[in-house]
């Protein structure tokens, strides 16, 4: 039961991370097409930046303790990257330079998104596989 | 000398339409060319073997221009002539051509053109007009078929009219030629000896051409005359010469080919397309064969390329908009071969000289005519069709309806009949009065808010007093009377607000000491209407210095004070002037000493020192811009004040940073007074936004300067004035552009001080080309350097200084290499360095840039604050001012001071700029070094004590660091002051303070002047000659 709970938890964490990243990407796209101004855009993106980092860290922790520990290792690079951004204080977008950084920030988030999707796929495959094994 | 080509730009632009010109293409080039000098051994051959006897004088004359006139048959005229035609020689009067290392004539006749750039000739027909050479109809018209299949080698071009042909007639038109310079004859004599010594590697360059080019620099009109006469005038002047010129050509041509083929064509083509520097070492010398005297220098200051305006006369003036090249590439692949920046520098409010003001147009009820789709404003390039009922947008080519009130019939040629009453249809720069649709809120009054540091160091330096006096004296001239608003806050460890309600007798001071939770003690009356509260404001300014004279507070609550000012101003927006003397130490936004740790320098963390330390400043800057507040920062401290952080406020609000290190009112007071007064009184545009539109297929992608982007292509400029320029780079969106012309339109929407909302529109057109050579030809060094400068400074914010300098150098090298590759196949370039005439100063400015304050050296070469301040300043400078700063003028003035009648009219003559090398300094002279920001007056060691005494009065023997220059009661001193005044008036945007220095006064001389002689080698940096060698070497590597 506890395992199942752990799985569910990790699953929701993954989904929420995906949601946050997509939200940020949407904000960037809106900004690019001039639907919102840089102030609002930066505020929205920055609002969820810290939650993303925290959720990601907790996700790693949960993976390590309850769930598939290899998932934890898989997401360690991500964690380290976030940590580095935070250390350099580059985790928040800079409203004054937002247009100059737009491309880089978008690319960074697209990579994150891809990474998370791969994680999700691996996770689901692994989940199905273990469930199948259990039945057997 | 081939590198200097003063006369060229002036060369008659319009190709002559007479058939003759076309018949004699080879002649024009000669005249357009700089002196053909013997320099390049490889190119010049002393005497064509087959030359007729008349040739001899020419060849013996070597490269001297006058040869043409010293034709034996007419011996006298040359000598008696007027010395007006200094030409290229003027600039280095002493030994005009000191060594045998003359570079080849670098420009060539049109003959070579066809093979290299057929497309250029076809496509850019209009542009050609300013390039005389390309204009000249290609040789094939005249000459034998050979020229059509022009082989790369220099052999087969028809010889220019051979001597034998016109030696007869020539005397006849001799009189029509302008008398050559006397000096020529002297130079000639200096040349004679070296000439015969040239090894003649290159077969036969006849000497004929050389005379023509040399003259070129000086006598404009005559050369063409001298060329056309061969055919056209011969008929009239001379009893018909035996052979008609064209005929002679061919026969000559054929005759010569088999024999000692006149290779001249090859050289001419070569010389036509580019300029070159010879770098081959001369036999018998170890020194590189490069004479520093022959290198190109922008001694005439910035010359705006005339091509742009000439080609499209309805374009706005280049002072408003300059493209890095006025030939826009038509394909991505062409862009990728253009390694220089592709973009524009815009100075939307540049000061126009008297009589050229931008016309203001009020459409009133019609509304402003704009394209429905792309929102382009109506401009001279739109076309009216359908009997005047429709107009076609030049940018997106959409057909728009002409509103009823704007309708006018078209005449037979399709032009509107009311054209002359519509300045917007004939002028590239106009200003529209904007109706209410262009306002988010009613236009706000001009607002000046002062945030003044009153801590102990500010009091001691005397800054407060100067500021108070200056502001008081400017009250009458503040723009926008009677609506102007004004307000003050002072701060040390607390924040002082001043109630200036008009009913009060004197201002009330309110002190807020709660720095954590800033509040504004009064809802209004902190910001008052100047005309209503004039008395209170004056009382306040009078008492301000004395109010704080005993203040001993050393703290600075800058952050909270800034927030308070923001709260007061946020309703109206306006201009915030910050006077900062102490490192912010209290409350939000406090900064700490940075840059003391020497270990950081030269590492990857170095650039962090040049970035704002606390995000508070960026956030604050963003908020200020949002509320239409522009910030100007005046920083005065003698210690570190973290300009990097403070300057951010100015950077993102479209303001500027004034930095007066170790301010002392006695010394720097005058400078502050002038610059503050200028800041307060110059015409300012409020609540502005700027956008630049361009034709389909291209897009502006990055913007550089002091502003904040409000959307991808909209620059927010809370307060903008004539001293600010913005640079932008463009890129192609489509792989191939099919149109012929591309249009740019800069639109600045702003509130004028009078309260009117206006739109200033500058429109320009540029040709689209398919040929890289054409892009190079139409390049604008000023704009390129301006963009390079901004890119490099931006790079220092994220990289090491070294990287920024290197990337600059790499781009220059790449550009020159690409250029070399264009010609390497057809020409034997050998050890020469070639570059387009239009970019002849690029290398020098590149060097100057890497020696400029924001980029130079390492830790020890410039203080961190100074570096950052210079960076912020240079990011906003207009092109002319930037070039002046990069290559300052050095002027010798002692002679003109002694001359009895130095009057205003010969001011220009006196101001002859010298190359920035130590050799220019003569210890018997007195020099002014002027970089647009300060004057350094250098007293030679052996300067006559008379002059020094007259200028400095009793303290001429004192140490000059303690002496300030002021007027003494004698003619010489008055004249010097007059001179300085004139120089200052020529550029009022900054005040140039005079620093006096005596030769040998160390270390002051080194710091002030010697380090700025940028052509000299100096502690690890390369000199101009080395730099050229270095670039040349890199260009040749994997070329």
Task: Characterise the protein shown here.
The complex is a heterodimer of chains A (136) and B (1039). Chain A is mainly alpha-helical and 136 residues long. Chain A has one domain (2-132). Helices cover 85% and strands 0% of the residues of chain A. With 1039 residues, chain B is of the alpha+beta class. Among the domains of chain B are: 275-304 and 780-887, Four Helix Bundle (Hemerythrin (Met), subunit A), CATH 1.20.120; 309-351 and 684-771, beta-sandwich domain of Sec23/24 (Immunoglobulin-like, Sandwich); 365-422, Roll (SH3 type barrels), CATH 2.30.30; 447-682, 3-Layer(aba) Sandwich (Rossmann fold), CATH 3.40.50; 888-1013, Severin (3-Layer(aba) Sandwich), CATH 3.40.20. Chain B has 37 helices and 29 strands. In chain B, strands 3, 5, 9, 18, 20, 21, 23 and 24 form an 8-stranded mixed sheet that branches. In chain B, strands 10, 11, 12, 13, 14, 15, 16 and 17 form an 8-stranded mixed sheet that branches. In chain B, helix 20 packs parallel to helix 25 (665-681), helix 27 packs across helix 31 and helix 28 (801-824) crosses helix 37. The longest helix of chain B has 24 residues, at 801-824. The interface between A and B is medium-sized, with 13 and 14 residues.
């Amino acid at each position: 039961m506890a395992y199942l709970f752990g799985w569910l938890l990790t699953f929701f964490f993954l989904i929420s991370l995906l949601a946050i990243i997509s939200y940020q990407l949407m904000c960037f796209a809106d900004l690019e097409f001039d639907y919102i101004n840089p102030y609002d855009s930066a505020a929205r993106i920055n609002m969820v930046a810290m939650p993303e980092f925290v959720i990601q860290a907790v996700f790693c922790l949960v993976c390590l303790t309850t769930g598939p520990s290899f998932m934890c290792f898989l997401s360690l690079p991500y964690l380290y990257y976030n940590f580095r951004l935070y250390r350099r204080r580059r985790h928040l977008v800079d409203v004054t330079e937002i247009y100059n950084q737009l491309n880089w920030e978008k690319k960074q988030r697209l990579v994150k998104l891809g990474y998370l999707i791969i994680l999700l796929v691996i996770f689901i495959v692994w989940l199905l596989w273990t469930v199948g094994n259990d039945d057997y | 000398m081939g590198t200097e080509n003063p006369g060229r730009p002036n060369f008659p632009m319009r190709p002559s339409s007479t058939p003759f010109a076309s018949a004699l293409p080879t002649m024009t080039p000669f005249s357009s060319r700089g002196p053909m000098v013997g320099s390049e051994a490889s190119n010049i051959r002393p005497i064509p073997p087959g030359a007729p006897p008349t040739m001899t004088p020419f060849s013996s004359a070597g490269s001297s221009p006058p040869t043409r006139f010293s034709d034996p048959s007419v011996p006298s005229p040359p000598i008696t002539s007027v010395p007006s035609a200094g030409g290229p020689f003027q600039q280095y009067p002493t030994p005009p051509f000191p060594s045998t290392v003359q570079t080849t004539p670098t420009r060539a006749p049109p003959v070579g053109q066809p093979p290299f750039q057929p497309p250029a000739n076809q496509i850019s027909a209009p542009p050609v007009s300013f390039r005389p050479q390309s204009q000249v109809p290609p040789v094939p018209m005249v000459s034998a078929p050979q020229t059509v299949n022009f082989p790369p080698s220099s052999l087969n071009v028809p010889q220019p009219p051979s001597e034998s042909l016109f030696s007869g007639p020539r005397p006849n038109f001799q009189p029509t030629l302008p008398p050559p310079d006397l000096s020529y004859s002297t130079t000639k004599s200096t040349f004679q000896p070296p000439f015969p010594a040239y090894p003649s590697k290159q077969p036969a360059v006849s000497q004929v051409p050389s005379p023509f080019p040399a003259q070129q620099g000086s006598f404009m009109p005559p050369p063409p005359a001298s060329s056309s006469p061969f055919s056209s005038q011969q008929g009239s002047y001379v009893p018909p010469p035996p052979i008609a010129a064209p005929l002679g050509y061919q026969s000559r041509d054929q005759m010569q080919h088999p024999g000692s083929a006149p290779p001249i064509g090859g050289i001419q083509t070569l010389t036509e397309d580019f300029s070159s520097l010879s770098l081959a070492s001369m036999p018998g010398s170890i020194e590189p064969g490069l004479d520093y005297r022959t290198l190109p220098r922008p001694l005439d200051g910035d010359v705006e390329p005339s091509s742009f305006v000439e080609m499209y006369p309805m374009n706005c003036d280049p002072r408003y908009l300059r493209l890095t090249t006025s030939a826009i590439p038509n394909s991505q692949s062409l862009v990728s071969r253009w390694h220089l920046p592709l973009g524009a520098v815009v100075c939307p409010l540049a000061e126009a000289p008297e009589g050229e003001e931008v016309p203001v147009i009020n459409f009133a009820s019609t509304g402003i005519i704009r394209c429905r789709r792309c929102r382009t404003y109506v401009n001279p390039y739109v076309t009216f069709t359908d009997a005047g009922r429709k107009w076609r947008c030049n940018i997106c080519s959409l057909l728009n309806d002409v509103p009823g009130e704007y309708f006018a019939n078209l005449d037979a040629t399709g032009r509107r009949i009311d054209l002359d009453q519509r300045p917007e249809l004939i002028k590239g720069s106009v200003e529209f009065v904007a109706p209410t649709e262009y306002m988010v809120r009613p236009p706000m009054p001009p607002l000046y808010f002062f945030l003044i540091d009153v801590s102990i160091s500010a009091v001691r330096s005397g800054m407060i007093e100067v500021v108070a006096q200056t502001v008081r004296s400017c009250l009458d001239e503040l723009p926008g009377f009677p609506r102007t608003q004004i307000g003050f806050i002072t701060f040390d460890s607390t924040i002082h607000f001043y109630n200036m309600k008009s009913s009060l007798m004197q201002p009330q001071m309110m002190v807020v000491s709660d720095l954590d939770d800033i509040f504004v003690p009064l809802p209004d009356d902190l910001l008052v209407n100047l005309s209503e509260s004039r008395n209170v404001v004056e009382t306040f300014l009078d008492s301000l210095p004395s109010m704080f004279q005993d203040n001993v507070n050393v703290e600075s609550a800058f952050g909270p004070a800034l927030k308070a000012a923001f709260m007061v101003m946020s309703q109206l927006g306006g201009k915030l002037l910050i006077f900062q003397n102490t490192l912010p130490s209290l409350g939000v936004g406090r900064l700490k000493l940075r840059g003391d740790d020497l270990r950081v320098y030269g590492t990857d963390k170095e650039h962090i020192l040049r970035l704002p330390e606390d995000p508070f400043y960026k956030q604050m800057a963003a908020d200020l811009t949002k509320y239409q507040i522009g910030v100007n920062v005046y920083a005065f401290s003698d210690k570190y004040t973290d300009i990097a952080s403070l300057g951010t406020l100015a950077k993102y609000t479209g303001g500027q940073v004034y930095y007066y290190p170790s301010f002392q009112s006695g010394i720097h007071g005058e400078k502050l007074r002038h610059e503050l007064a200028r800041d307060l009184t110059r015409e300012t545009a409020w609540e502005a936004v700027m956008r630049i539109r361009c034709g389909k297929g291209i897009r502006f992608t990055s913007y550089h300067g002091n502003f904040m982007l409000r959307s991808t292509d909209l620059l927010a400029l809370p307060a903008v004035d004539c001293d600010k320029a913005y640079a932008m780079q463009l890129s192609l969106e489509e792989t191939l552009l099919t149109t012929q012309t591309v249009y740019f339109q800069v639109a600045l929407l702003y509130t004028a001080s009078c309260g009117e909302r206006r739109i200033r529109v500058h429109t320009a057109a540029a040709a689209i080309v398919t040929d890289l050579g054409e892009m190079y030809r139409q390049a604008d060094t000023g704009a390129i350097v301006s963009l390079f400068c901004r890119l490099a400074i931006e790079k220092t914010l994220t990289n090491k200084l070294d990287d920024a300098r290197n990337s600059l150098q790499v781009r220059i090298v790449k550009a020159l290499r690409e250029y070399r590759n264009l010609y390497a196949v057809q020409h034997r370039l050998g050890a020469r360095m070639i570059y387009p005439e239009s970019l002849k100063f690029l290398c020098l400015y590149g060097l100057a840039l890497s020696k400029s304050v924001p980029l130079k050296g390492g830790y020890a070469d410039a203080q961190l604050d100074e570096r950052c301040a210079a960076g912020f300043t240079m990011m906003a400078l207009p092109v002319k001012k930037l070039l002046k700063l990069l290559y300052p003028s050095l002027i010798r003035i002692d002679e003109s001071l002694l001359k009895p009648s130095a009057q205003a009219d010969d001011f220009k003559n006196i101001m002859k700029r010298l190359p920035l090398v130590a050799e220019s300094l003569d210890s018997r002279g007195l020099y002014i070094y002027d970089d647009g920001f300060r004057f350094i007056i250098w007293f030679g060691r052996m300067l006559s004590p008379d002059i020094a005494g007259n200028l400095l009065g009793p303290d001429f023997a004192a140490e000059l660091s303690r002496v300030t220059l002021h007027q003494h009661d004698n003619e010489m001193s008055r004249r010097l002051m007059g001179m300085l005044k004139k120089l200052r008036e020529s550029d009022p945007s900054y005040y140039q303070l005079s620093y006096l220095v005596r030769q040998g006064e160390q270390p002051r001389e080194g710091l002030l002047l010697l380090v700025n002689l940028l052509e000299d080698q100096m502690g690890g940096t390369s000199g101009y000659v080395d730099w050229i060698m270095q670039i040349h070497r890199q260009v040749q590597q994997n070329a």
